[in-house]
Amino acid sequence: MKELKRNIYLCMKTLDEAERIWGDRVSCLRTRLERVPTAQALHRVTGEPLTARRSVPHYHGAAMDGYAVKARATYGAGDVRPMILKVGENAFPVDTGDPLPGDTDAVIMIEHVQPVKQDEIEIRAAAFPWQHVRKVGEDIVAGELILPLNHLLRPVDLGALLAAGVLEVPVYAKPKVWIQPTGTELVAAEEAAESAPGQIVEFNGVVLSGLVRECGGEPLLQPIIDDRYPVLRERMEAALASEADVVLFNAGSSAGTEDYTAAILGEVGEVLVHGVTMMPGKPTLLGLARGKPVVGIPGYPVSALLAFEQFVRPLLFSLQGVSAPAFPETEAILGRKLPSRLGLEEFVRVILGRVAGKLVAMPLQRGAGVITSLTRADGILRIPQELEGMEVAAPTKVRLLRSREQLDRTLIMIGSHDNTLDVLANELKKRDSRVHLSSSTVGSLGGLLAVRQGHCHLAGSHLLDTVTGEYNFSHIERYLKGTPVRLVRLAARTQGFLLKPGNPKGIRGVRDLVRPDVTFLNRQAGSGTRILLDYLLQKEDLASQGIVGYDQEEFTHMAVAVNVLSGRADTGMAIFAAARALDLDFVPVTEEQYDLVIPESEWEDPKIRMLLDIVVSGPFRRTVAAMGGYDTARSGELVGRWDGREWLLRERT
Amino acid sequence: MKELKRNIYLCMKTLDEAERIWGDRVSCLRTRLERVPTAQALHRVTGEPLTARRSVPHYHGAAMDGYAVKARATYGAGDVRPMILKVGENAFPVDTGDPLPGDTDAVIMIEHVQPVKQDEIEIRAAAFPWQHVRKVGEDIVAGELILPLNHLLRPVDLGALLAAGVLEVPVYAKPKVWIQPTGTELVAAEEAAESAPGQIVEFNGVVLSGLVRECGGEPLLQPIIDDRYPVLRERMEAALASEADVVLFNAGSSAGTEDYTAAILGEVGEVLVHGVTMMPGKPTLLGLARGKPVVGIPGYPVSALLAFEQFVRPLLFSLQGVSAPAFPETEAILGRKLPSRLGLEEFVRVILGRVAGKLVAMPLQRGAGVITSLTRADGILRIPQELEGMEVAAPTKVRLLRSREQLDRTLIMIGSHDNTLDVLANELKKRDSRVHLSSSTVGSLGGLLAVRQGHCHLAGSHLLDTVTGEYNFSHIERYLKGTPVRLVRLAARTQGFLLKPGNPKGIRGVRDLVRPDVTFLNRQAGSGTRILLDYLLQKEDLASQGIVGYDQEEFTHMAVAVNVLSGRADTGMAIFAAARALDLDFVPVTEEQYDLVIPESEWEDPKIRMLLDIVVSGPFRRTVAAMGGYDTARSGELVGRWDGREWLLRERT
Fold this sequence. Notes:
By secondary structure, chain A is of the alpha/beta class. The first copy, chain A, contains 17 helices and 39 strands. In chain A, strand 24 (345-355) and strand 25 (358-363) form a beta hairpin.
């Protein structure tokens, strides 16, 4: 039986305190110096000032193609009194870079010379001494400082060093970083194709290796080990005895592991910080053992990244004598209220887009285990520990994960989830790799509200009017008073019930949901699918209280599908494409209209133009049709135009 | 005898035209796709959309340490009615990440459980279904899009892919770039330790290789070849037949070479652009041969960099399906008037520093051959072809070569040149690697003017008052009316005449300068050394017209020294340290005071504090003393305080 302990943080610190304590102890450390050939020193940092071994140029040379002359000999030449020079006698042909022959001290450009005979030229202006001559030391003088110490070497720096005869440079050794994945439950990615429940694919090691490389370090990624004390202890000893400059233990996802690592660090060295009031990233461990910085990196991927960036990144740069470059930041306004716990520095992943001139930040999922909250994010917003959260439209600083130009090319789509959005995102990338579709799935109603607040370029919506049977029109009338929009058909799609393959519970329709042996999985309130379900229940006069799992909500069609597949529920309502993607059975219920709601103010945006162009294109329609359950016959049609008070155009179904 | 031809540009284009022509023809090209293991795909670009092979998590797992239970079985538990659960029967200990055992569907956190007996626990609140459970597909659902195509892979992306079971990724092959140095005059850096006049060290190849790497490409650096037609033609054929995706011919510094390359390109393919109205960078050649982009890169190092950045950099990114990241830019004001030729897009290297809140750009040397104008530069300013130059204090955009934070930590020093400034720069780096001393040597008087205009943090000055024999005081009174400054002694230093070793011309002092057999090398007007010389001539009643080379000016002590060494002049006036650095003989003339002039407004700047702290420190004094010819006894002393109208403090000598 497992031993259970409370996860006790002995030296819990605020983020600021932890950074100060860590900096005080490790920022003075440097890696040893090593000499590398200059041609291979790109992006290394100089460990000594570098002075020129030779002058550049090291001789007086022609700076132009032409004739080298002695300037004094040309005095008196002019337009009225041209002068003839004898080639090989008092005028010598030179190309750029050639040394000046004999006692010549000037070059006359070829353009200013008239050939007279085979060996005679005519000039019509005197040369002044040293004209068009690259003089010795014009660029670099021997003994001069070329680069100071602690300088990150760029391509041009290597050129200057080679020119100055510096063929080898003393640079800080790349910090070697021991990366130790720990966790009995971990399996290597290559072995995990069919991994069993309880097995977690180890991927933090690769992420940390990449981050180490980006800081100029060299990762020493170790094989996975069990998180048992003797094993951990032995590997810690091995790490400290190794050539590694920094030791990272990645705790797996078990709190037990972290406890061991902290205990072992206490035995072999000194624990400086155990636990930081940041989220994600709380279980961070910082210490020193035998002169080496040791960091316990939390197991959840978002926590791991944040712990690395706060504590390991600055260390890897300072080990090389430079400071870590600041992360690019931008000002944005918050697109949704964000609660947060007082006393906790929270890092929230957001998508960012410029809507009507304002940069809007929409929070993504906050779970520390959700790695896609990082891959999908455009930025990271920090809620200081003094705040209990932030209000909607609050101005805030956001650290950028994409470039500023990319943000200006990001289309923010908020609203209902649909599998065709992936197709749209890809087709946009194909047309213009710089255009990026960031979508936040908050349900159809959430999309309309985001349009009203001016927080998105477009919304996806399939809101059924239970009276008219029409989609979206009446909801726009109700929620978008004063906000002109256009409504474009994306696709018609089939909604129905997802079922385990073979339909073991024999579910045929909505009436089966109230059977006590049937577990249901719902979509969140405000989603079009939820509205559809409630309408169906009402039509059949069924009470939602009678449905097991009615209060269990998921946010996307695919989440419903995967949970039906996994057995969490017997059925749930979703689009056919979701059933097909996971080979589930499907009972169709209705065909519904999924529309794009585009604010009038964004209608002429070139990104919207491109998107609408894609929606009517062959490749988009074919790909979507192949997903199953979609009708794209009317994709791209303008079905409504709302001026904020009335419909200027409105299709009648 | 050399054949001389005019360098004719057949297809000369403006920069904009050239970029458009080039983009139209090459931006559609892509490298082939290759599959690489995900763990090795850092910074590569996806060539296809990547979808998840598996869900993450792929099982329902505990999100907390605690006990897995069936939620329904806990209903009714509360503070007044605690419930006992049997461990192993209806409560199962789980660590974070463990799969939920049996038909459990919730986890109760270990903190909310009271152990009762060995196998019994007490709870005081009911669990709700799926609390503290990481549900199947919560992060990623099988079939879902993980990353679109044309996406640059970051460390977290690799993690998400591995988690989703994507072990290999199709990415664009790294563009291979053939780099061909050409030029009969070129020698490899390793062989150039004692190279003869006329030999130029080849270093562009290493610079271009580094630039290619920074664009995600793979350089194929070739050995140097002669710039004779048959050799060039043969290597062009070899390059086109090779695996290279892009061919760069680096023209050496001879215009003849470029002509051959253009001619050969016309024979084997198509010349699109030959000559661009940019400076530096005019002799750029753009073309296509057998489907491969071919670029003739000019020979001068600054030209080579600019041609690469304008034409090769965007190509290397687009070959990989992404756009080149924009260069960081900033607004600055120009610290000096900049003339420029109409019709020529000019790129000027500048140093940048924040002085009194304004970011000031001071132009550096403009020669295309001066590689240190790049290594020393903080930014590059572009003068559009429509302008005939820019006025002092004109606002301008500057492309940054250092980060914004670095600029805020740059000390701008303008004025007289002294060898101790290198020592200062290094000592600053040692104290704080982020602090950077950028100096522009324009002479003592230029320094005072920069102080008056608020364009520097400090100036270096050694201006002799020929009446009083004092340094700097009277010039400050004259030029800094209304500008309060403090005057701090940097060092006293010995000025004198530099002589070739052994003093072959027997020069003993200033009277020898008027000898017809003696060639002199002067410093520029406005420099302290020039003022000193003119004072000495006047005292001895000697006419400057009688001095051969009086009109030949250099800008630094070291430039004078190296030109005396090279034989360009028999003597020149400079400080002893310059003579010592190059083993020249020296006739001392006088000891002078070199002072730092620090505007009152900058006096409390922490960088100035640090600099003054260094000036009084042992290491600085010792290093400077070891250079010879310096007296550092009073280094760091405040010798004057000027309030803009009168001296509040003034040493009397």
